[in-house]
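This part of the workshop introduces the protein records we will be handling. Each record describes a single protein and holds just a pair of labelled lines. Instead of coordinates, the fold is spelled out as a row of discrete tokens. To make this concrete, we reproduce a full record directly below:
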Amino acid sequence: MNSLKYKWLIGAFCIASLTYSCKDDVLDIKPTDFVSDAAVFSDISLTSQFVTNIYSSLLSGFERRDAGLGQDWSVGFGLLDMATDDIEGHASLNVNSVQNGDLTPSNFNFSIEMWQANYVVIRKANTLLARIDAVPATDAALKARLKAEGRFLRAFAYQELIKAFGGVPLITTEQKVSDDLLVPRNSFEECVNFIVKECDEAAADLPVSYSDIELGRATKGAALALKARVLLYYASPLHNPTNDVNRWKNAADAAKAVMDLGVYDLHPDYYRLFLDKMGNKEVIFAKKYQRPGRIHETAWKLGMSIQAPAVIGGVWGAFHATQNLVDAYEMKNGKPISDPSSGYDPQNPYKDRDSRLDMSLLRNGSQWKGVTVETFEGGNANMAANGDRTKTGYGLKKMMDEKYVTADQVYQGGDNDWLFIRYAEVLLNYAEARNEQSGPDATVYTAINKVRDRADQPDLAGLTQAQLRERIRNERRVELSFEEHRFFDVRRWKVGSTYFNQPVKRMKIVKNINGTFTYSVENLENRIYNEAFNLLPIPQIERERNPNLGQNLGYNQLKERGFQGSSLLTQNTN
């Protein structure tokens, strides 16, 4: 989708609500970029542009405002996965409130932004769906497609909300000031059923693909993949305490429907996957960026600060991958580094590792923009004078475009897309759901091994259900790193106390006189995780606006009682 073409439409509905009462005709002139709501829904081409504006309202991982909604200087300064064991963020980040066990309904800016931004999408989609039938149009197929896009976008926003907060208010009509706006929460199950229904009905009118100029719009595959993701969450331990196997079956069947379309495949190059736009068959749904009209600032806010002549300095260096994550990458022989027979050498720790490690992270000895990265003590990425030096020994490479070398190039912003849904996730969703449904079978191994094959990792075989469960979970951690799946995966699996209550670790490297290195793993920071954090508390500001949202069930009680109240935890999932 060409976002530049429709940029002028942004804000049209806000402008349309204004009235003018000036007596002088010369002053009674609307701005040249004014488009009334009546005009938008009297012309199908303008209606289509309004749908484009809804896409632009989606909140991507490149755009999270760590300082809060409206604080645009902090856009792109953090990822949700900075609140996991995979990343150590900048010391000033608000996301640290989660890492420190200090999460409250008032102090996590990402959750406040998530709530508000997604309800903006829902409001716009409801406006579209309420008015589009009255739009004059001879092209019935186009009108049906635009309605389907609106339903998909609304379903997508609700999916974003329920995986964070559990059940939320389902608002499905265009609200007016005279309406009762204090809508109570629906249950998680009601929300899931609504999203699934919307995805099924949207898929019926969405095309399988678009021409290049329309890339970014929702497809049949996007609707089916969203349905599969939501059903996977519904089947997961957090929301399925009795382990209803039929939920796992439904999730597996939904993922299989995407696979059976025969449209998607894995991109051959894992690093280029996140940069290549045209002909990228792995992308199912993405937020589109394009210089100069829509860019993101990830490259200079999360990029590794390297003090070397050929590489820019002055980036914020807010991203530091942990040693915990690095340890999750297997050896090339498919064995975890904890296996004594794996061949892992602690003094040569990056030799013969899963290729995705070097495609995702910068580490000591990496080549980046023509420079050898030095994360050893006193190296070009770890000098005391460099306030943004690496805290862990690692920096971000995945989703970063190496071609932008100069400061001017980097500060112009990146324009690679944020991938909301890609085919590798669908394959892993299927493998997980099918394994939980009935244990390992040939289809489970085929799905997960297809993902592993791209990285040249050996196929998995001959595992028990429990063993394969752990390998699937680790595969998600590695394959989907920094794409904001880890934040939710650990919660839906209810294993936060296992992973998020452990110290995060760094790699300390000393360069010896003879040019060799001594590597040692050290604890960097202790983390605190409480089971009440499996769902985010509804923001306090929203509860004050709408008392019918109720309490964040069990939150304070669990905190006082050491999080032992299982019945309250169950209530909080609805």
In short: The beta strands are 87-89, 283-287, 319-321, 361-362, 367-368, 371-372, 395-396, 418-422, 504-511, 517-525. The radius of gyration is 24 Å. Residues 1-32, 553-574 have pLDDT under 50 and may be disordered. The CA atoms of residues 97 and 103 lie 5 Å apart.
